[in-house]
Amino acid sequence: MDPLHFRDVLGAYPTGVCVVTSQAGSGERWGLAVGSFTSISLDPPLVGFLPDKRSRSWAQIERTGKFCVNVLASAQLDACRRFASRHDDKFEGIAHGKSPAGLPLLDDALAWIDCEVERVLEIGDHLLVVGAVVAMDRRGEGQPLIFYRGGYHTLAEIEKERA
Predict the structure, then answer these.
(1) Which of 14, 44, 83, 157 has the least C-beta neighbours within 10 A?
(2) What's the pTM value of the predicted model, to 2 decimals?
């Protein structure tokens, strides 16, 4: 299978963009951007995402045993790019507070979901991380940041393209 063709075909499927965060007891914080977040189960409430097996950020987050999913708003492209980078301090200049579990919660995120790591499965060149939801809430009525056809968009841009 040609990897470029694979990416091109799957790029026709739009995904939301999230930042997964965690914090150690020592205060160290980690985060990574993901476009593979999904609901898995209603009973029990489970969610999942697929980080690259080589992700240094995920390796640190996994050690904490918990994470917070921050659903990004369309205006949070800069935060997305920061958390997708290998920047030493991804939180530098990013406004954030704490979730009920004490994890980094990005200001202006549309929603947040606190989770405990339920299980991690190795699948191809990625991991399937399953999180047991312990708390969650919606924070606003804004538009989500969307990844579609290799770039970041708003719902309005995708609608305009389809018209």
Answers:
(1) 44
(2) 0.92
